[in-house]
Design goal:
single chain, about 220 residues, alpha+beta, 5-stranded mixed β-barrel, two-stranded antiparallel ribbon, 7 strands, elongated
Amino acid sequence: MKELWEQAILSYNLPLTILLGLVAVFWLLSVLGTVDIDGFDFEVDADVDAEGAGDGLSGLFGFAMRFVNAHDVPVTIVLSLLSLFMWAGSVLANYYFNPAQSGLIAAGIFVGVFFASALLVKLVTEPLRPFLRQLKNEEDNQEPIVGLVGKVKSRVLDSNFGQIEVPRTNGAPALLNAILPDEGESLVRGDEVLIIDFDKDRDKYLVQSSARLGVDSPTPKI
């Protein structure tokens, strides 16, 4: 136990130890009812896209999010598993392969542990996808979605990846995975979109800019 603690507080493991501690506090507060898990997922999902740096970066980020199943599994679960796997992998790998506590070796271990942890997250969350997708579809199908107007919540929405928020008359707003039908186009957070169809193969809604179509944003009834 003493050796584990000593490894956990080494300079190259300490950030992951702090991150894991924050994750543990978050789940403890959620169990006590102090933190709203859905609200946290909403904020993270809205912010997980690229910083508008370009189509290449946003496409790469979208691929990374799909790889770890973050488009189907709540981001809180994905980040929690990633933090746990990275912390355990870094502590163990440095203990056995970096006894001299070399910063260069620790950096290499960090990169390897990151990719290995992402793969583990994918493997662990893969069985959850059908169940969570069914729950999401049941919730979204409570009210017709196609034809409604919403707003882009991710930083970028393009033909590969994006998320929108759609107000509904019955229940809370729906947070949906959406894409544009045409490549080369992109929208940014806050842009209004019209849902025009649902792509079953990609399991995403097809949207277009409501400004281009001349569609006014509806005012949901309270």
